[in-house]
Sequence to fold (365 residues):
Amino acid sequence: MTETDVSQFEVRAHPKPKSAGERAAILADPGFGRDFTDHMVTIKYTEGKGWHSAEVGPYGPLSLSPATAVLHYAQEIFEGMKAYHRADGRVGLFRAEENAVRFQRSADRMAMPMLPTDLYLASLQALIDVDRAWVPEGEDTSLYLRPFMFASEEFLGVRPALEYTYCVIASPAGAYFKSGPHPVTLWVSRDYTRAAPGGTGTAKCGGNYAMSLKPQAEAIQKGCEQVVFLDAVHRRYVDELGGMNMFFVYEADKTIVTPPLGTILPGITRDAVFTLAEETGYRVVERPYSIEEWRADADSGALTEAFACGTAAVITPVGVVRDGDVEFSASGGVAGPVTMGIRQRLLDIQHGKAADPYGWTSIVG
Ligand SMILES: *Cc1c(COP(=O)(O)O)cnc(C)c1O
Fold:
């Protein structure tokens, strides 16, 4: 596959797609990750042959051998993106090329083949071409896109697989947190870490999530909604949440502090926040930020807001933080104006309600 465009995807229409009525009922209250569109993309990779058999086919179960490598050694990566119904009636993506490049970096870390970025982008276009009617139109809704790739070779030996399957599925999405953009409560994980230097923290792989589920369950058990991880070496510096990057707002000197890249996942929302913060007169400082500093500055009032960000939940204010028996919060635990301002600005660009001076958005439908 040298010429990568939509035309090389064989389209097999779903024999029994959801009726317009069934679809409308789902789109009226989309939830998150629960319902899927009628179709999905698959592309195969075989060592020595390259990428082949690109198709858009009916959404449905995969048939896999019990010896499929991914089931044993977790050689798997994914992306998370959204297709937005825009104010002008068209369907747009946000910084899609960045996701394509990150997917390649994740693949490289997991010793998987790198899907060409133009083939990645063409796969999204091909799916939206057939399932465009599934993009919801309600406020802050979107069609969540989940590209992923796994080792599909039937082999139990421990080595990079010789066969891979790339897929894209799509799911209409409402607000990520049931509580909406209300402040999220965080549990500081002292017993578990997320990523060590040299590990896979910067790759978007399923394994990073598998190991976060127990600490996440602990957070819920402690009455919190999300877990915040500290660094694996000093057990002091804020890493990130299980799936979101962290920011700390200091109003007095108009700076916003965020942990540096290294073991965290390089979020595309995180990167957009840099630009949007500067646009509103804040300076973003990347530096290690300790849990002690967080607590002291929250208690003194120097820290005016804290927020988390990622594609799924956009920008979410942080309310109460619980660290063992200690509790603290910035901005009295309510959503602050800097957080909500950046959030709205980002949503306005994503949904085509505001001009896009950065060339972040592209049209796919
Ligand atoms: C995907 C992800 C993020 C957020 O990245 P975005 O590109 O902003 O969606 C943050 N942390 C982890 C662990 C992730 O997997």
The chain has a mean pLDDT of 95. Residues 304 and 331 are 5 Å apart (CA to CA). The pocket of pyridoxal-5'-phosphate is lined by residues 80, 204, 208, 240, 243-245, 265, 267-270, 310-311 (CB under 6 Å).
